[in-house]
Structures are given as C-alpha cells and as structure tokens.
Amino acid sequence: MISESPSLVAWSLSEPEPTGIESFLERYAAHVTFYGSGKAALYDGLAGFVEPDSNVLLPAYLPDAVAEPFHELGLEPRYYRLQSDLSPDLADVERRLDDETAAAVSVDYFGFPQPGFDSFSALVSEYDCYLIDDNAHAPLSVADGMLLGTRGDLGVTSLWKLLPIPDGAILYCNDETVAERFEPSSIAGVRDQLGTTDCRFALKSFVAELLDRNATLRQSVDELVAGRGPSVPDPRARYESGKTQMSKLSAYVIEDADPTAIRDARRENYRTWLAILEDCPDVDACYDSLPAGICPQVVPVRANDPQRFLADLEDCGVGAHTWPRLSETVVADPGYEVTKRLAREIVVLPVHQHIEPSSIESVGARLRR
Ligand SMILES: Cc1ncc(COP(=O)(O)O)c(C=O)c1O
C-alpha cells in the first residue's frame, strides 16, 4: 500500500534528527510567520495592503478554495490562462491587468518553479501591484539558490503538505517595506496548547497506519464505508476551517523534522517513478528532470486515459488522484480549455518520505505486466 501522505506514526518511530525545518527556511527567508493554512496566510498577508473593489490575478489552474481569502478581502478574482507546460499565457495576463489590480499570484506547481516566472514578474512589475509567490506545494524546494515562495513581495507555503501534521503554513514577507508595514492578526502564530484537532489528527493517523499494515482489516473497513466516503467540503468551509493559528502538534513535528533527509527521500522516490514511467506509453511525466534543490510534492503525470490509469494504480494499492477541483468560474468558461484539460489529465503520484523506493519498484513491476 502506497498512501498519499506521510504518516505521523512512521515519523514518531524514526530516529530524531533535531535539525528542524524552521532553521532551514530561515536560511533563505528573513520574515517568516506561521498560520494554520496557506489560505489564512494569503488573507493575513494582504489584509493591510489592499483596498476592497480592486482585483487579483490568479492562475486558472488552481483549487477553487484558494480564491476565498481574496473574496473576503473584497477583491475580484481574475483567472488568467495557462499554457499546457503550466506557464502563464502572458497575452492573457496582460489583458486582465489594469490600474485596479492589487496583486498577481504565480504558483510553483508540485514543488517546481512556475515556468515563465521571470517574464510574468517583469510584466506584473509594470503595474503598481503586489506579486505573490504561491509555493503551497513544496516548502523545501530551492531553485537557483532561492527558496520557492520567497521570490515575490509576499509568498506562502503549506507545511501540512510536506509533513504528517494537522495543519501549518507560512507567510513570507520578502520585500523589506512590506515586512515593516505587515501587522499580523490574531490568526498568526502557533497555539499555546494542544487541542482537540491535534488529538483527532493523531488518532486518525494511528488508525490509518493500522489499516495500511493490515490488508484484511482495511478491506472490511472499506466495505463498511463503501458509498459513504467523505465528500469534499465547499470552498468557503475549507477556507474557514483553516483560518486559525498553527497547532502546537504541528510546531512540535516541524521542529523535529530533518529537511535534508525528507528532500533526499522524496527525490529518490521521484526518480524511481520516472524510471517506471518510461515503460508506460500512455503516461508522461510533467517534469522529466529533477533539478538540484527541488523537493517534489508529488510526481505529476499526464495520462491519456486518466481514469484507467487511476484504476490500475488503485489495483496496485497506490493512493493517487487528479488535481485540482477548479473554480466554477473556470469550469463554466470555454476560454479555459487548456486548464480544464490539465485538470482532467494530470494525475499526481505520491513520493513522500515514508514510502520505500522498493514499494514503488514493485508497483512498476505490476504496471508493466
Ligand atoms: C496552489 C495552492 N495555493 C494555495 C493553497 C492553499 O493552501 P492551504 O490548503 O494550506 O490553505 C493550495 C492548497 O491546495 C494550493 O494548491
């Protein structure tokens, strides 16, 4: 069984290497503030800087809930088109920028720098607006000596996508003037005490680990809950539930995690998948090289028949899915055909630090059959 996320139980059984994620990040970023979620960090980071009734440019290939903090700030989300290599369609960006644009967001998808970032940044800098470097996917990725998330005026990253923790994200204030003027609200920082969310998360991790290790038990539970799977909450509810400080349990795991070991493990797993994908003619990796410094969140691949590929992966016990659920505005507009195709065809494969490369290799052997 290859699960989609790393496990709190596996983390607790590993040898402690108290190097800590925070000190790693602080080597690259001067102004770091913790939050419960990336969306909360986006809200708080922009709150003191933008006026209602202005607009924000977001890439169309984005989960629907990410627009929620901007809605709350009174900004109109304007989705710009992407090319199929995930770079911004600059002509479309230019059409949507105007004097009322308060901010423009670039996304480092899956832990890789967004292709075309420099041209996007140069275009946006012609307007008096903030550039936000959204690196929600991979907190430890470094490209050309810069930590992803630290390239705009503001940046965010989601720690819970990297570690087995109930929540956790960071706001980077990269521009000195922004850092001086930034005033964190009551949702910034780390909670003083462990709460019920921490206990619930720990219990869920324990049960998930138990099920992963016991196929018969998992089958019985799967049968029991068949047809009653958890539905994804609506965008507003997802935003509201993450509008908190970061939990104490998260802070504890972050302090104890070893960034080098995590990055090395994820990179090795990424390369193992790449070797397997060479023998899968109907599936292409979105990024077929792994530059130094990149700590991948997942392996994104484009599948000719995504549903069949997902079914094959499920048969091999691999937790994988397409990404993301797009906003209704994008879905309803025929102008976003490239983005909609990306959302249909891109399947993300897990590479997290608690997967052994040998398990990926055995999946490869089964897929080749
Ligand atoms: C590109 C991107 N930005 C921002 C976010 C928001 O992060 P969080 O879920 O920590 O609020 C997500 C979440 O999936 C995301 O994919």
From TrEMBL:
GO terms for molecular function: pyridoxal phosphate binding; transaminase activity. It holds the Pfam family DegT_DnrJ_EryC1. InterPro entries: DegT/StrS_aminotransferase, PyrdxlP-dep_Trfase, PyrdxlP-dep_Trfase_major. Keywords: Aminotransferase, Pyridoxal phosphate, Transferase. It comes from the Archaea. GO terms for biological process: polysaccharide biosynthetic process. SUPFAM superfamilies: PLP-dependent transferases. Belongs to the DegT/DnrJ/EryC1 family. This is DegT/DnrJ/EryC1/StrS aminotransferase. The lineage of its organism: Archaea, Methanobacteriati, Methanobacteriota, Stenosarchaea group, Halobacteria.
